[in-house]
């Protein structure tokens, strides 16, 4: 009976010790959970709070050797952190402050300030180096590669209008062309000695042409070939002013010349071209064609309308 009375108190004491140890271990987590929001570094905490085990806590909750979360542990090393840290080595918090909580908080704030200043300076240096690299690359890029898009005013023997193109790798430029043209057609219709015509002749053309740029210099020789489709009207003058006919043309134009493009974006072109009619027709209405006028228009177009100098001037874009 005496042995049992001794064992009972011992078991109570042991149980009380276990409960007390469990409560002591739970106190830091409860304190941390109640202190503030989650964090990764001291800079994310307001006031004099510091980041301990992922939570912002006040200085009173910081022990002599807190397990703080640091940016070096939570963030990958950036390009700006390749060199040594600007924060002086003071031997650690224990050596510098001991158990002084205020000293520890001030030390953390100062180290974070130095880190932020250092990262800002490093990021600015990286941006400046990248700008310098891009400018150096652009200085070495041919103008037609740096500014491949272009829009120009185009004047040719068969009309004037606009040209838009895009240069691939500085050597090949497909272009879309829109032109308008007006003149007078004169000539004999039918057999010699018959009545002639002197009529207003106007049409609009749309086309696509491909230009080969043989060099990547500012001025380069070029070769181009284009296909055009035109539609317009013939009539309104001469011996009969009360008639009009629709005219249709399909033709090819080849040209050789020179193309200029400056680094500023200014572009100009001078070419000598020669065209060839593929199809032409004069029509008064559906199924009503004028076969007698077709040779007159063919001769008119082949005389000097599809042959001669062409010039364009415009601007290139990135």
Show the helix and strand layout.
Elements lengths: L1 H34 L14 E3 L2 E3 L13 H4 L18 H5 L3 H39 L3 H4 L2 E8 L2 E8 L5 E17 L7 E18 L5 E19 L2 E22 L4 E20 L2 E2 L3 H13 L1 E11 L1
Antiparallel strand pairs: 1-2, 3-4, 3-11, 4-5, 5-6, 6-7, 7-8, 8-9, 9-10, 9-11
Question: Can you walk through the features of this model?
Answer:
- It is a single chain.
- The protein has 318 residues and is an alpha+beta fold.
- It is 31% helix and 41% strand.
- It has two domains: 36-135, no CATH class; 143-317, Porin (Beta Barrel).
- Strands 3-4-5-6-7-8-9-11 form an eight-stranded antiparallel barrel. A two-stranded antiparallel sheet has the order 1-2.
- Strand 4 (159-166) and strand 5 (172-188) form a beta hairpin.
- The longest helix is centred in the middle third of the chain and has 39 residues, at 101-139.
- The radius of gyration is 43 Å and the shape is elongated.
- The chain starts with a helix and ends with a strand.
- Residues 25-36 and 61-82 have low confidence and may be disordered.
Briefly summarize what is shown.
The protein is of the alpha+beta class and 318 residues long. 31% of the residues lie in helices and 41% in strands. It has an eight-stranded antiparallel β-barrel with strand order 3-4-5-6-7-8-9-11.
Number of domains: 2
Going by CATH, the homologous superfamily of the largest domain would be: outer membrane protein from Thermus thermophilus HB27
Which band does the percent of strand residues land in?
Answer: 35-45%
Uncertain segments are: 25-36, 61-82
Structural class: alpha+beta
N→C terminal distance? 101 Å
Average pLDDT: 78
Strand order of the largest sheet: 3-4-5-6-7-8-9-11
| Rg on CA atoms, Å | 43 Å
| CATH class placement of the largest domain | Mainly Beta
Give the CATH architecture of the largest domain. Answer: Beta Barrel
